[in-house]
Amino acid sequence: MRHAVILAGGSGTRLWPASRRARPKQLIALAAGGDALVTTATRIGEQLAPGRVTIVTAASQAAATREVVPQVPLIEEPFGRNTAAAIGLAAARLVRSDPDAVLAIMPADQHVTNQPGLVHALDVALTAAETTDAIATIGIAPTRAETGFGYLELAGPAVLDAVMPVVRFVEKPDLATAERYVSSGRYLWNAGIFCARAERLLAELTSKLPATAEAVRAIAADPATAAARYEPLASISIDHAVMEKALNVVTVPASVGWDDIGSWAALPAVRGEDDAHNTLAGDALVLDGTGNIVMTDGPLVATVGVSDLVIVKSGDAILVIPKARAQDVRAIIDALNARGLQRFT
Amino acid sequence: MRHAVILAGGSGTRLWPASRRARPKQLIALAAGGDALVTTATRIGEQLAPGRVTIVTAASQAAATREVVPQVPLIEEPFGRNTAAAIGLAAARLVRSDPDAVLAIMPADQHVTNQPGLVHALDVALTAAETTDAIATIGIAPTRAETGFGYLELAGPAVLDAVMPVVRFVEKPDLATAERYVSSGRYLWNAGIFCARAERLLAELTSKLPATAEAVRAIAADPATAAARYEPLASISIDHAVMEKALNVVTVPASVGWDDIGSWAALPAVRGEDDAHNTLAGDALVLDGTGNIVMTDGPLVATVGVSDLVIVKSGDAILVIPKARAQDVRAIIDALNARGLQRFT
User: N or C end: fewer C-beta atoms under 10 angstroms in chain B?
Assistant: First the structure.
């Protein structure tokens, strides 16, 4: 049977201060559609019967997650160990009650404007996983030369909603390379959304990360051992651990208005811009400035003569950072931790 | 007898959002010494007997001012009409009970690190006013080529604490001119601090602004008529109306760590800078940036990779503006008023 697995355990530090340890980004209503996680769960719910959506999240975020989506069963990671272990955990759990489980796996912190389109692409990908035992990713038709994403390389131009072999996984490219990718028509954004039979994923882990495979099967059999067994596991992504080396990896090219809300710089693509190319949420007054992202949960933010700046007030903190350096929010988290100011993280 | 008159009626919009209509900058503890107005009053009190310090303030700010300095008598301006009228109002009032009143007049929103030095210079200036009927300004020895201040030109190099004739008042110069002024030793900052007999000031007003002179004398005789008589008066500074055209204007050169807190850009001179040349007040974390001014009344402000920026959180508003454009805070006030958002001003 088909299952959806939503990966919600990320720390989301790059969206600080809106995203905090106890309330990370996937729980925050960033997109216009409301809470990102709830949106994702609802979307999958259109295709799957209730009770076949599972969320994998960090134990430290379980209570907050349960508050937002009380109807969805959770799998708790005792520690963050990246996506290979998290997906293994879910596959091992689900395969116990459903040996034929086919999983649609997706991160919680994404945004899709065309939800029926995604549901259709997932249907094609799930069918490929069921009928050919493929690992079937959703490949997003790129809309800009984005250097912050990984890409999937095809042998020829992408055909929407077709099942096409993946030639290669490509890491984040530089700008010139990204521009070449986009104009070629042979590269798709790797959105981290993919479908596969649970047993195939466990078999891949057994060959490529045997300790992880053994641990997640043991945890599924005896959840009380989770902390002890999970702690020593390698922290590695499913892309690096499995996908880049696996055979029979295909993709379903999709044009569904997808975007990652991976940093503040991605917000304009999700929320839109005003005539001066500013993206504003809350009471904001931007004079003589363009390309700014301003979000406030209360106080008025007023600026004169600043451009391409991210200004975010959320809770007890205010962030000011150039849009081009939005990834460096992590440096703030590190500095706060180093100074004993964890209460702000 | 000697009296101090503190001019506290300014709107202080250039220090928004710390400075608001109902609580303008002179009431705000910007300088390390605490509330600027209280500091000024205390300083004068060291030289003058109690009861001989008077504050001139706007009627709209009277209640807030009284809260801060309940022991100091206020003269309320019904409307803001600049310094010529405000000083006339005080002179006309004080001369009624003390015909020989000699006034030390100073703005409330200034900062002096060497208070005994200022008190000494004021003593020299008051003596000059008493013995020679001069208008005796305090001329501040410049410490940088500031283009935001007016200057006093002398015939020769300034001698500290001497009484020297003023050749000319000079408006805000451009940078090259300001640099020439500072290196010449013949120019002093016009701090707006000066001493004169009240009757001399009223005589100057009678010859140069007769309507103002008549109105302030009539208001002193019958305060109930203040609103009607004050409203039509010309809004002009005492410098333009009187000082620039008067005879026997002298200055006492002083080196007293004076600075004007006229805009956020002046704050580093008053509060100092850290090793990275940032001026921080409140919880602030500035990574990879220099020359910033960050003030917050609560939330942590964290920045990465921004320089020469003013970031101020105060009450229900947050300001972000390049230091070089600090004067343009007025544009925010104008825009807020135009949009019906007076509640933030």
Answer: N
